[in-house]
């Protein structure tokens, strides 16, 4: 049977890809940010997942504003990255797990989540950069990856509670998969930031730290926040943190916190890393 061994959260800042490609990880501006991934990388090395399900939001590489699904699941054998305007060489393609993806799609629809099923899907920095931060760069990636895209760009966007419920449905779907598969859920995005308008550059460190604590230990606190509440406090792009709730919903209520790290600002963003072990006693 499939087993959810844990969950990780990560910001998916575009500039991270540029830093990795240019080997800037130990430069003063970037060092503390990348050092925060050390314990998460070590946990992954010991946990040995077969598959990582990456919950992220597409930034126009796969979906444009004329067609934006609320939830979209990759159901392909392979996923390709492409240049988003940074001039960076796309990373190696990611191997998917189509049989698992189709099982998830069927189960999620049965649980009344109307998932868009994508048999071709390009993946942008929201998907790629967290994997690069956790695994480095590879010509052949050491883990299979399945994209689960959540709309946080074109309003109306789903609520934190709806994402939490999606996580619970995802957990139930994985538990019914008959193949022995070790799975990690990677919730990406956030934390507080806004990239435009009069409040551009807003970062609320206190709110970010409280979110990290509450999502880990009391997710109902975050689920009770409206989208308006989140964007008022954390900025318009701070709404991305709802995707952490998909990860949290898929795990046990008593999943153990292994690691927390927060750094701000990095590229005008509050950046958090959280590791939850779903098997720890």
Low-confidence stretches: none
Task: Choose one word for the global shape.
Answer: globular
Q: Radius of gyration over alpha carbons?
A: 17 Å
Give the end-to-end Cα distance, rounded to a whole number of Å.
Answer: 20 Å
Task: Provide a descriptive summary of the structure in words.
- The chain is of the alpha/beta class and 281 residues long.
- It has one domain (2-270): LigB-like (Protocatechuate 4,5-dioxygenase, Chain B), CATH 3.40.830.10.
- Helix content is 35%, strand content 21%.
- It has helices spanning 14-21, 28-35, 38-47, 98-110, 125-135, 160-175, 205-217, 219-223, 227-234, 244-250; strands spanning 2-10, 51-56, 71-74, 78-81, 94-95, 116-118, 122-123, 144-150, 181-188, 256-263, 271-277.
- Strand 10 (256-263) and strand 11 (271-277) form a beta hairpin.
- The model has no long low-confidence stretch (mean pLDDT 96).
């Amino acid at each position: 049977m499939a087993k959810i061994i844990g969950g990780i959260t990560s910001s998916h800042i575009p500039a991270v890809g540029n830093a990795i490609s240019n080997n800037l990880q130990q430069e003063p501006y970037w060092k503390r940010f990348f050092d925060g991934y050390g314990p998460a990388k070590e946990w992954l090395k010991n946990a040995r997942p077969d598959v990582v399900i990456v919950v992220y939001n597409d930034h126009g590489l796969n979906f444009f504003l004329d067609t934006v699904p609320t939830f979209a699941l990759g159901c392909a054998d392979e996923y390709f990255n492409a240049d988003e305007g940074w001039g960076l060489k796309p990373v190696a393609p990611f191997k998917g797990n189509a049989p698992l993806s189709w099982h998830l799609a069927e189960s999620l629809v049965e649980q009344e989540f109307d998932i868009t099923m994508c048999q071709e899907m390009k993946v942008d920095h929201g998907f790629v950069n967290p994997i690069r931060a956790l695994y480095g760069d590879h010509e052949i990636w050491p883990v299979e990856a399945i994209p689960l895209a959540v709309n946080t760009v074109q309003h109306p966007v789903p609520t934190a509670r709806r994402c939490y419920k999606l996580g619970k449905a995802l957990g139930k779907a994985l538990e019914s998969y008959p193949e022995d598969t070790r799975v990690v859920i990677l919730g990406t995005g956030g934390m507080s930031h806004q990239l435009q308008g009069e409040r551009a550059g807003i970062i609320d460190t206190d709110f970010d730290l409280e979110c990290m604590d509450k999502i880990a230990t009391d997710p109902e606190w975050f689920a009770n926040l409206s989208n308006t509440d989140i964007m008022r406090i954390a900025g318009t792009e701070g709404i991305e943190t709802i995707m952490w709730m998909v990860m949290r919903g898929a795990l046990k209520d008593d999943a153990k916190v292994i690691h927390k790290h927060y750094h701000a600002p990095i590229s005008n963003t509050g950046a958090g890393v959280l590791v939850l072990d779903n098997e720890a006693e």
